[in-house]
TrEMBL record:
GO molecular function ontology, one term from the record: serine-type peptidase activity
Name of the protein in its database record: Serine protease
BP terms from Gene Ontology: proteolysis
Similarity-based family: Belongs to the peptidase S1B family.
Length: 411
């Protein structure tokens, strides 16, 4: 922080990856968490990054489809809720000794939520039609920047009036960006997509990589005609072809059942989405047989994903036939995998360059058995947001080292 005559000016740095937690309670409990996709910083703050101008605000977006489901004791969330006025109705008029709350996560408290109560000392109008809130009898610490500032009325109801931005050394006061009507309109514009994003985290979030070429779904009419040899205008099957199967699609499940006897083309990439949709013994048997019969000699990329972390044990036989021929990347998303299955995944992935286990639950012990006779060629292992099933915590460094040993050619 560089202190000037009137302002504290900060040096700008941009995060490469960020995650949102809803109702975090320590290291291992939360209602959900999801990666931030992109964000927008107010342009006036970018011009002059000062906490006192009333422009220290940003809007970040996430997708609930990426969210890890609740972890921890569900009863913890069945507490008395307070009414909070939604999205800054902002009828705020400063009154002497107005009571406020700051509810946030002090950095030294390791992810636990804390509430601090104080009173407003005053507000100050800034250039550009913004205002800041000043409060002196409320101490905050690093980590609470960005926390909401609530006005507390006599009935105990809360209204969001600002965003805590930090401590102003020169004036010996805490400051918050007041959510004025003008700032509210800017925030709404960001949410509705009217304002271009500043930073996009999508390239830093591990997801199945789009092939960048033509994609043909399994339930398209042209593909069906092609496989049955009746198409007048055949689809060219080469590196551009990605076969996509969706377990939640009745058409795709029917396709898997009917395609058993077809002579399948040598596709290069395969995506199996919502694998839990193959939820009967018959549909699982159809999928496994389909994979055994149709898998080419080499695949560049395989993605298998679920919702609500289905157990992949019933599918491991068929998936093993896939993993064994993958040369570039195996991507497993939102699945539950036990130790035996994980050992088979490693054994069958020995030719792949990259193995990604993203948002998975792993049921593993402290000792993970690896077949050291296999010549592993995996160059990259990604365990982003992958948790231990026992304690619902993201894998710590010691467990990651257990996995990393599997990348070696010897003990």
């Amino acid at each position: 922080v560089q202190e000037t005559e009137d302002y504290d000016t900060v040096d700008l740095n941009y995060a490469k990856r960020s995650t949102i937690f809803l109702s975090r309670d320590g290291k291992g409990q939360f209602l959900f968490k999801a990666p931030i996709l992109n964000y927008v910083v107010h342009p006036e703050y970018l011009k002059k990054p000062r906490i006192h101008d009333g422009f220290d605000v940003a809007v970040a977006t996430f997708d609930l489809k990426d969210a890890l489901p609740p972890v921890g004791d569900p009863d913890r969330f069945k507490r008395k809720m307070v009414k909070i006025t939604p999205f800054f109705t902002n009828s705020f008029i400063h009154k002497a000794e107005e009571r406020i709350l700051i509810i946030g996560y002090p950095g030294e408290k390791n992810g636990y939520l804390y509430e601090m109560e104080g009173t407003i000392h005053g507000t100050k109008k800034r250039k550009g039609g913004t205002e800041v809130i000043i409060y002196r009898d409320l101490d905050t610490t690093c980590g609470q920047s960005g926390a909401p500032v609530y006005k507390l009325d006599e009935e105990g109801e809360l209204e969001i009036i600002g965003i805590h931005v930090g401590y102003f050394k020169k004036k010996k006061a805490n400051l918050a960006t007041l959510i004025t009507q003008k700032l509210k309109q800017w925030i709404l514009g960001c949410i509705e997509g009217e304002i271009p994003i500043d930073r996009d985290f999508n390239s830093n979030i591990s997801r199945p990589k789009e092939p960048g070429l033509k994609k043909v779904s399994s339930n398209t009419l042209e593909l069906e005609k092609l496989l049955q040899g009746t198409s007048d205008t055949p689809v060219k099957i080469d590196s551009s072809f990605t076969l996509t199967l969706d377990g939640n699609s009745p058409e795709d499940r029917k396709f898997v059942q009917e395609a058993q006897s077809w002579q399948f083309p040598a596709f290069k990439k395969l995506e199996i989405k919502n694998i839990e949709g193959f939820n009967t013994e018959e549909s699982r048997a159809d999928l496994i047989e389909f994979l055994h019969n149709s898998t080419p000699e080499a695949l560049k990329y395989v993605m298998v994903s679920g919702a609500n972390h289905p157990d992949v044990t019933p599918f491991i036989e068929g998936l093993g036939a896939l993993f064994d021929v993958v040369t570039d990347e195996i991507y497993l998303n939102s699945l539950k995998i036990d130790q035996d299955c994980l050992a088979k995944v490693f054994a069958k992935s020995c030719k792949a360059k990259r193995l990604a286990l993203i948002w998975c639950f792993l049921d593993i012990s402290s000792v993970f058995e690896i077949d050291w006779e296999i010549d592993y060629t995996i160059e990259e292992l990604d365990l982003y947001m992958t948790c231990s099933e026992f304690d619902s915590k993201c894998l710590d460094s010691s467990k990651i080292r257990v996995f990393a040993r599997a990348l070696s050619k010897s003990c």
